[in-house]
Design brief:
With 290 residues, this protein is α/β, with parallel strands linked by helices. It contains nine helices and six strands, in the order E-H-E-H-H-E-H-E-H-H-E-H-E-H-H. It has a six-stranded parallel β-sheet with strand order 1-3-2-4-5-6, sandwiched between helices.
C-alpha cells in the first residue's frame, strides 16, 4: 500500500447552496481594471482546447524556491480536491481519504522520485474569496515548491460573476509567488448537475483563467477539457455528478502530473534515476490498485 497524501480537512460538511445570481461590486478602480484586462484577453482569443500546460507557462529550471521543498506540492481547493465521492455521505469522518486526486498524484510522482510528497489542503464548500484568505497560512505551514490551485466550483453554483472568481484566483497566484512557490492554476472542472447557470459561469470563468495564465506565464492545468466526460463523474442515485468518481480522480491526477513534470526541475525525476527515452513524451505511471 503506497503512502497516502497528507489530508487536512476542515469541519465543513459538503452542501448545496441555492442558486441565485450574485452581483459583486467593489469600491475603487481595482475591480474595473481586472475585469477590463481579463475581458480584453479573452476577446483576443486566448483560449485552449489542450489538456496540457499552457504555451506561456513558466518552468522551474531557473526559479528560486527559497527554503521551500522542491519535491512537495500542495493541492489547494474545495471538496473536489479534498475527495468527495458520495453526496449522501454527509458525515466528513466517513468519507474515504484514499479516493482523491492528491493521493493518486503522489503515487504517480513517487514512481519517478520517492521523495515527492503531496499535501491535500482541500476544504469542502470553499469559495474563492475564502480560499484567497486561507492560502497565505497554508503556504507558510507547508513551504511547498508547488501549489496546485483549483477553485471556483462553489462560486459558480452561486452564479457569481466570472471576473469576480478569477480576480481571487489571481490573488492566490500572487500569494504563491510572494512565497517563492510556483503556482499551477487549474481550470474549473465540469459541473454535470442540472445547473445551466453554473455551467455558463464555469465556461466564462475558464476562458478568463486561460487568458490570465497566458498573460502572466502561469502554468495551466486544463482540468475542464481533460475531464469533460460524464463517465468520469458520480452516477445517480448514490453519487453526486459534481464530484469525480474513482476513475475521474485518477484522470485528474494525470493532468496535474503532466503539468508538474513539465515545469519541475529535471522533470520531477530523481537525479539518481536516468529517465528512459530522453526527449520523448513521458506518461504517468499507473496508479496502484487498492
Amino acid at each position: 500500500m503506497p503512502a497516502q497524501a497528507d489530508l487536512h480537512r476542515s469541519g465543513d460538511v459538503p452542501g448545496r447552496r441555492p442558486v441565485t445570481r450574485r452581483q459583486r461590486r467593489w469600491t475603487g478602480g481595482g475591480w474595473g481594471l481586472v475585469l477590463a484586462s481579463l475581458l480584453a484577453l479573452v476577446g483576443c482569443g486566448h483560449s485552449s482546447d489542450s489538456t496540457g500546460p499552457s504555451s506561456g507557462s513558466s518552468t522551474a529550471s531557473s526559479a528560486d524556491f527559497g527554503s521551500n521543498d522542491q519535491r512537495k506540492a500542495t493541492a489547494f481547493g474545495d471538496s473536489i480536491t479534498a475527495g468527495v465521492l458520495e453526496e449522501r455521505r454527509r458525515v466528513v469522518g466517513r468519507l474515504s481519504t484514499t479516493n482523491n486526486y492528491p493521493n493518486d498524484l503522489q503515487a504517480m510522482l513517487q514512481g519517478i522520485d520517492p521523495a515527492w510528497r503531496v499535501v491535500n489542503r482541500g476544504q469542502s464548500g470553499e469559495t474563492v474569496e475564502r480560499g484567497a484568505n486561507r492560502i497565505p497560512g497554508v503556504l507558510r505551514a507547508d513551504q511547498p515548491g508547488f501549489i496546485l490551485i483549483m477553485e471556483g466550483t462553489n462560486n459558480a453554483s452561486r452564479e457569481d460573476d466570472p471576473a469576480f472568481i478569477v480576480s481571487f484566483l489571481q490573488s492566490m497566484v500572487a500569494s504563491a509567488r510572494a512565497n517563492q512557490t510556483l503556482p499551477i492554476l487549474g481550470t474549473i472542472p465540469p459541473n454535470f448537475r442540472n445547473d445551466p447557470g453554473a455551467q455558463d459561469v464555469i465556461s466564462s470563468a475558464n476562458d478568463m483563467i486561460r487568458a490570465l495564465a497566458q498573460a502572466q506565464s502561469i502554468a495551466l492545468a486544463e482540468i475542464f477539457n481533460g475531464m469533460n466526460d460524464r463517465s468520469l463523474f458520480g452516477q445517480a442515485p448514490d453519487r453526486d455528478p459534481l464530484h469525480p468518481n474513482e476513475q475521474g480522480y485518477q484522470v485528474m491526477a494525470g493532468i496535474w502530473f503532466g503539468v508538474l513534470t513539465h515545469v519541475a526541475p529535471n522533470g520531477g525525476r530523481s537525479l539518481a534515476l536516468r529517465p528512459k527515452g530522453a526527449g520523448k513524451a513521458q506518461t504517468a505511471p499507473p496508479v496502484p490498485k487498492r
